[in-house]
Recover the amino acids of this structure.
């Protein structure tokens, strides 16, 4: 068992590297580039401004380096063992920069000469010649860039690797560390899931038992049909309809549309109270009120899926020999159902429960986007849209780690729950 | 199977879960209240310090000035004229809050490095610059400076600073702070590349004594003065505490000399609401509102509901919402409505690329471009998409700017004239496939590149597509994201693109139309080369006399109107509802007399009887 | 046995439900697939699902004949013409030809599946080049021409399609056609108000209704740009069906290749394959799709391919498990002993036996692909001019006009019904296969 776990853990890093590599290269090969995502949000930046910002970010994040270098740097950053990077004030950096400037100088002079030549030409008549000169300037520029001696702040110092705290990098677009962004968003998503999952489990188990009890009846069939239908309803549709009809000025304005709290939350007491003859809901009730619609959206599909699972598992067990034996012993149907069959049926449900871990990050993507809740899902989708690649990559990594840990836990749970399973 | 797990256990687990969640919530709430108490404590202690300072001063027999700014006799125009005028009104009162809404959540308030437009709203209320632009005269009025001198070659500028100005923590503002601000911007480790670009030609900045700063530049650039005048001055003693790394990463470092301040100058975190309180130590007349509160709601519908509930005081509706709410009594009774064209609101356009991949495109022919403009019914677009809250643009200058030639009328919608023009250019449907061609087989077909994700743009694009199709012009759609759009523009790799420019008080169209800007990623992305226009633009830029310069700009306008390098689409109106309890609102040349994104004194107030929010300390 | 339990968490959706009536006894392996199909469609739910999908397929094929602004037949200025024929695209023609062939084959003589396939391929081979070569479709259709002609009474006779609007006919000649509610809505609302005044608001028109009153008949209302919603929904069936089928086909092919190799070669190949599967399972599909769609433009075919390439892991796991089981069976040993080459053993002997369980993943895969497409369209990454259900659902709330109920209900219901149909069929297949799986334990 321990060797098994150890082997699985050993296989974890290659899997993670493989996965992030795929995601990275999808991002990196995207036209427009990853670097372009930081150039502008409004499109109003003047060319000089843009150039300045591009240079700054290239220097800081090494975006002008080859793709594999960028990926390796990111890996180095997130891994707990890695190389140090150059600091801004390193004396060696200054020396190298001076040497570089010296070597670049002749080429730059040449470029300046060509620029002056080009400026002297008349644009309306000598377009071809101007194009020619522009190409020559561009070639020289490329040549100039190949003389690259000075390390950027992000360049690695290849000495002995050291142990360090993993750093998830920075969000380019937001200009903040990913760690901080995740720390802000993760609790929100966890709260949503912590509400939705037990609810769907409780409902699903109850319904599964009822169905298994009345196996083959019309009720059983129709409930099966309904749960399958629930599974099939697109979350986006439910979200749009709930907001459109239940939280809309023109129809019923029963619920709030977005957010997790009313806007005046800061002025609220925690618990509901009566003051001056008016009822004040307080912060807690307000939060609950805001969570009703998102929770419904998150719960129904999960619940449908789980209840089918519960029913199947129960029916499986009800046909097993030990249940037959129990019945033969003359135990009441109630005891057979709850004591014997039900407990064993929990195993598949518990295995599914381990999926909670990745669901914490990815489970609420759509719901968060529809209801404007700033959780992990929304963070991830925004990052994908803005091509904020370190943020996206790090979220992917966090999700994947949680998911793989989840699988491992599932395997372990399985052994604990069912002694017949063993891993050689 | 010893670990028995039954239904009862399940429910007790659930119960435990609920209790834990409640507990966490409770702790969170407690934490929040603790923070509030800390804030109040901080305020009280700083006030106590002030008080003891004043007591000492009195004890030592120093005469207490009535207002700190009073000793520096107004050297130039009074920077607080709008506020003083408001204070002279009979029902003027201090108190109440002004509650606004950002259209998005903002990530950073720290000056120079914030990328959100809305962050400026907060910065211009908490920080101040050397001068500000008067919304009525559009001239610069001295604020933190009292006077300035500019050398004849424009390369040296000296600013005389106002005395007696203090930051919101009580420290005096001196020339050192101005120099620090500029050096801070120039520090390459600071993520302020945007601002840095405007100072790229700076040679040196020096303090001469405590109240005089001299800027030296390598060359003269026409917007240098406004760059300096509008730079928000940062307190050295506060910001120098942080390393470049810390400065880049801490989202809410905000302190200045402005009339409002953050409750704690380093305490704001993204996700919490921005609330500004009055700066008790403000050197000018105290503004009317006790607090400025900013919500962060993206959704139009939610914003509308908030305005209905009087949760926000100002609401910028979509045209649909504006038309709907305009007829609702509940809204009109308690709102003032504002619709105005602002000179800085800009225009949108379709740019026709005349040269792609070294080859002239179909749009190299002026007649084709004119035909395109004639085919797009801009009046109808304004009427149906913006419900009349927009009008066709005629040129690249701001609304009502003296740069425009008033005799120019927008091109009409006239398909038959367009057809005539196209036929004159040699286009006809020769192979009966519904699309026009030239005799050499060149098809009247192009791809319109536009930024994805904006429903209004989508609608315009589909409208243009349908309009052109009626005459046998085939338009393909290419919806792209911004990074790709920019790349395509930089490499001139597009046929036509729909975009917008914002305009200034006096717009310089050199960089979008001058032929020199076709090279090196300049903004003349459409490869438009017209020597006549080049000459006109150069003449306008070189003319010093304002009246003559305007005449020269009008010549530019006429050439562009005739040439149609762009089809100038629409200028949009700004619309808004403002709660009627807020008084002293009026229109100015820049829109209203308080433009949110510009630094200017706060002239608005709420009469005592109508005040809604009370500040409890 | 290293990864069997890991697979349980993923395969858990395959619940092992006994079907009392389905005791089939030991059917010969070759007929297993046929038996499963037979059993599947014995179940009412699956039949209903199939009916809906066949209906959609018919609508998809017949879309240009059912909903088009171009009249079928028209006499204008004394000349007869068929604008609809003129505007049919080669794709329309090919689809129609295939549909007619299948129908004829089915009606005239009950041909086998293989025979039908052959005939269809022949028909496509003839019709496709012919229509691409000879059919000249106008590239810039103008839809309002016919209405303009009618208004100026130049038309003597006109025969229109059932729904007289094309999906991209944005009714530019009718002022303010955008966002008009279904034509039946106002009368029904009035009636309801008269019956229960308390429950239903007085028939004061809402914002969007106020702006518009469409003079033409529109069964499901019009969308944000003025096009007829029903027409767009009908034309969108093509995309809805093809996205599911194509992306699932890709995922199955990839899954069979990888899963088959893993199951047959075992050892290092298997270990490597399992890592590959884990890697692909860990990739957040939605995020990668958003990135790809945002970067490479809104291209429906690209979307199909990416969905397919990211969702093959389930199939691969199934196939691997089946192969692992089958490779130890006697008939495989016999085949190897006879000296048959390896690839032949795999693809002739093992694959047909291992394929049936994949049907379940495939069916649910189609449903999931449709959901993914609609989610992406909903996030604004779908088609722009051409119709798709998710895009219409997105327009129900985006665009600054508030909530538009008919844009939310109808396309959403179409997505739901389609996904539900596939789910019903998949569920039925699972029940049909199930007794077999249980037998083997």
């Amino acid at each position: 068992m321990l060797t098994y776990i150890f082997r699985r853990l050993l296989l974890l890093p290659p899997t993670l590297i493989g996965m992030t590599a795929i995601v990275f290269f999808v991002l990196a090969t995207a036209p427009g580039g990853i670097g372009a995502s930081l150039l502008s949000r409004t499109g109003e930046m003047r060319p000089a401004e843009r150039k300045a910002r591009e240079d700054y970010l290239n220097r800081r994040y090494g975006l002008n380096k080859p793709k594999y270098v960028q990926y390796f740097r990111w890996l180095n950053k997130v891994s707990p063992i890695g190389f140090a990077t150059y600091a801004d004030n390193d004396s060696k950096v200054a020396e190298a920069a001076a040497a570089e400037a010296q070597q670049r100088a002749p080429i730059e002079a040449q470029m300046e000469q060509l620029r002056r030549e080009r400026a002297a030409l008349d644009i309306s008549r000598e377009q071809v010649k101007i194009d020619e000169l522009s190409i020559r300037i561009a070639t020289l520029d490329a040549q100039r860039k190949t003389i690259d001696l000075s390390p950027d702040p992000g360049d690695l110092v290849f000495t002995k690797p050291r142990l360090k705290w993993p750093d998830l990098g920075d969000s380019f677009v937001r200009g903040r560390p990913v760690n901080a962004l995740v720390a802000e968003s993760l609790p929100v998503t966890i709260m949503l899931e912590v509400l939705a999952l037990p609810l769907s489990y409780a409902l699903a188990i109850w319904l599964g038992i009822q169905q298994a009890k009345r196996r083959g009846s019309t009720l059983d069939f129709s409930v099966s049909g309904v749960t399958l239908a629930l599974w099939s309803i697109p979350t986006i549709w439910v979200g749009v309809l709930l907001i459109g009809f239940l939280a809309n000025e023109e129809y019923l304005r029963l619920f709030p549309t977005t957010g997790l709290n009313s806007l005046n939350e800061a002025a609220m007491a925690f618990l509901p109270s009566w003051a001056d003859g008016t009822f004040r809901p307080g912060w807690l009730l307000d939060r609950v009120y805001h969570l009703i619609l998102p929770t419904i959206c998150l719960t129904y599909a999960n619940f449908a899926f789980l209840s089918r699972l519960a029913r199947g598992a129960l029916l499986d067990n009800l046909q097993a020999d030990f249940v037959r034996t129990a019945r033969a012993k003359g135990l009441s149907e109630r005891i057979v159902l709850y004591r014997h069959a039900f407990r064993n049926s929990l195993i598949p449900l518990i295995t599914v429960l381990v999926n909670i871990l990745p669901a914490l990050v990815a489970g609420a993507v759509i719901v968060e986007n529809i209801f404007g809740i700033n959780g992990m899902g929304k963070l991830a989708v925004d990052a994908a849209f803005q091509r904020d690649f370190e943020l996206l990559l790090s979220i992917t990594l966090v999700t994947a780690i949680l998911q793989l840990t989840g699988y491992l836990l599932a395997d372990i749970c399985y052994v604990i729950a069912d002694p017949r399973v063993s891993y050689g | 199977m010893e670990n028995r797990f039954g239904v009862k256990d399940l429910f007790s687990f659930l119960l435990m879960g609920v209790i834990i969640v409640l507990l966490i919530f409770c702790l969170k709430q407690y934490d929040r209240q603790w923070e509030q108490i800390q804030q109040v404590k901080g305020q009280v202690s700083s006030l106590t310090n002030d008080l003891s300072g004043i007591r000492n001063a009195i004890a030592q027999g120093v005469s207490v000035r009535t207002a700190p700014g009073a000793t520096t006799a107004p050297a130039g125009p009074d920077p607080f004229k709008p506020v003083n005028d408001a204070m002279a009104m009979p029902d003027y009162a201090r108190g109440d809050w002004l509650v606004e809404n950002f259209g998005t959540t903002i990530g950073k308030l720290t000056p120079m490095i914030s990328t959100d437009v809305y962050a400026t709203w907060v910065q211009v209320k908490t920080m101040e610059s050397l001068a500000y632009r008067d919304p009525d005269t559009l001239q610069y009025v001295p604020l933190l400076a009292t006077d300035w001198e500019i050398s004849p070659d424009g390369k040296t500028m000296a600013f005389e600073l106002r005395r007696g100005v203090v930051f919101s923590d009580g420290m005096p503002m001196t020339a050192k702070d101005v120099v620090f601000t500029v050096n801070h911007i120039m520090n390459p480790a600071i993520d302020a590349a945007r601002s840095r670009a405007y100072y790229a030609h700076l040679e040196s900045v020096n303090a001469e004594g405590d109240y005089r700063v001299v800027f030296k530049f390598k060359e003269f650039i026409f917007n240098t003065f406004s760059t300096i005048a509008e730079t928000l001055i940062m307190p050295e003693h506060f910001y120098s505490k942080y390393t470049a790394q810390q400065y880049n990463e801490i989202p809410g470092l905000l302190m200045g000399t402005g009339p409002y301040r953050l409750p704690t100058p380093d305490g704001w975190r993204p996700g919490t609401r921005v609330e500004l309180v009055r700066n008790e130590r403000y050197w000018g007349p105290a503004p009317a509102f006790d607090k400025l509160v900013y919500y962060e709601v993206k959704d139009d519908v939610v914003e509308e509901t908030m305005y209905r509930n009087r949760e926000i005081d100002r609401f910028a509706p979509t045209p649909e919402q504006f038309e709907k709410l305009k007829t609702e009594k509940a809204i009109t009774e308690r709102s003032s409505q504002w619709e105005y064209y602002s000179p800085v609101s800009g225009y949108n356009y379709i740019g026709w690329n005349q040269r792609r991949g070294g080859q002239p495109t179909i749009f190299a022919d002026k007649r084709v471009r004119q035909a395109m403009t004639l085919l797009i019914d801009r009046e109808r677009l304004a009427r149906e998409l913006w419900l009349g809250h927009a009008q066709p643009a005629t040129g690249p200058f701001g609304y009502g700017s003296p740069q425009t030639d008033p005799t120019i009328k927008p091109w009409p919608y006239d398909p038959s004239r367009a057809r005539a023009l196209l036929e004159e250019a040699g286009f006809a449907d020769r192979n009966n496939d519904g699309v026009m061609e030239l005799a050499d087989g060149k098809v009247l077909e192009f791809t319109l590149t536009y930024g994805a994700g904006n429903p209004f743009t989508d609608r315009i694009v589909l409208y243009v597509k349908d309009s052109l199709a009626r005459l046998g012009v085939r338009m393909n759609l290419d919806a792209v994201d911004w990074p790709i759009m920019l790349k395509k523009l930089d490499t001139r790799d597009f046929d036509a693109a729909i975009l917008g420019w914002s305009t200034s008080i006096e717009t310089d169209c050199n960089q979008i139309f001058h032929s020199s800007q076709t090279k090196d990623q300049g903004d003349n992305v459409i490869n438009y080369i017209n020597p006549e226009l080049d000459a006109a633009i150069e003449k306008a830029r070189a003319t010093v006399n304002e009246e003559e310069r305007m005449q020269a700009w009008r010549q530019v306008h006429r050439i562009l109107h005739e040439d149609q390098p762009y089809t100038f689409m629409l200028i949009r109106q700004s619309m808004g509802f403002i709660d009627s309890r807020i008084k002293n609102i009026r229109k100015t040349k820049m829109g209203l007399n308080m433009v949110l994104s510009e630094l200017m004194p706060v002239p608005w107030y709420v009469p005592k009887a109508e005040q809604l929010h009370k500040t409890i300390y | 046995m290293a990864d069997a339990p890991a697979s349980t968490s993923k395969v858990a959706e395959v619940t092992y439900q006994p079907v009392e009536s389905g005791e089939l006894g030991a059917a010969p392996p070759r007929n297993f697939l046929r038996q499963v199909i037979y059993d599947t469609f014995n179940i009412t739910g699956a039949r209903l699902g199939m009916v809906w999908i066949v209906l959609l397929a018919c609508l998809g094929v017949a879309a240009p004949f059912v909903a088009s602004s171009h009249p079928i037949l028209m006499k204008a200025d004394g000349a007869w013409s068929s604008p609809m024929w003129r505007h049919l695209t080669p794709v329309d023609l090919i689809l129609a030809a295939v549909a007619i062939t299948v129908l004829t084959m089915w009606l005239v003589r009950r041909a086998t599946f293989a025979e039908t396939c052959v005939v269809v391929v022949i028909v496509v081979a003839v019709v496709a080049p012919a229509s691409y070569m000879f059919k000249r479709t106008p590239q810039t259709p103008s839809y309002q021409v016919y209405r303009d002609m009618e208004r100026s009474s130049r038309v003597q006779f006109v025969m229109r399609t059932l729904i007289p609007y094309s999906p991209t006919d944005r009714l530019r000649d009718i002022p303010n056609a955008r966002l008009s509610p279904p034509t039946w809505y106002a009368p029904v609302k009035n009636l309801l108000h008269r019956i229960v005044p308390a429950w239903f608001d007085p028939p004061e028109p809402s914002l969007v209704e106020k702006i518009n009153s469409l003079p033409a008949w529109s069964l499901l209302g019009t969308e944000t740009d003025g096009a007829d919603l029903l027409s767009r929904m009908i034309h969108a069936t093509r995309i809805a069906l093809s996205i599911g089928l194509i992306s699932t086909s890709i995922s199955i092919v990839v899954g069979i290749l990888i899963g088959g190799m893993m199951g047959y070669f075992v050892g290092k190949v298997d270990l490597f394959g399992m890592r590959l599967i884990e890697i692909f399972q860990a990739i957040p599909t939605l995020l990668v799709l958003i990135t790809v769609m945002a970067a490479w433009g809104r291209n429906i075919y690209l979307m199909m391919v990416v969905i397919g390439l990211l969702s093959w892991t389930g199939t691969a796991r199934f196939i691997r498990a089946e192969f692992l089981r089958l490779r130890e069976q006697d008939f495989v040993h016999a085949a190897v002993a006879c000296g048959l080459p390896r690839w032949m053993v795999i693809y002739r002997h093992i694959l047909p036996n291992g394929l049936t369980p994949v049907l379940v993943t495939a069916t649910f895969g189609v449903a999931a692909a449709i959901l993914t497409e609609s989610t992406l369209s909903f996030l604004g990454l779908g088609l722009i001019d051409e119709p798709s259900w998710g895009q219409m659902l997105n327009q129900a709330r985006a665009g600054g006009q508030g909530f538009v109920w008919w844009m939310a209900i109808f396309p959403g219901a179409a997505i739901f019904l389609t996904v539900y149909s596939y789910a019903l069929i998949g569920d039925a297949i699972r029940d049909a296969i199930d007794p077999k799986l249980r037998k083997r334990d």
User: Anything to note?
Assistant: Confidence is low (pLDDT under 50) at residues 64-74 of chain B. Residues 7-59 of chain B form the longest helix (53 residues). The radius of gyration of chain B is 29 Å.
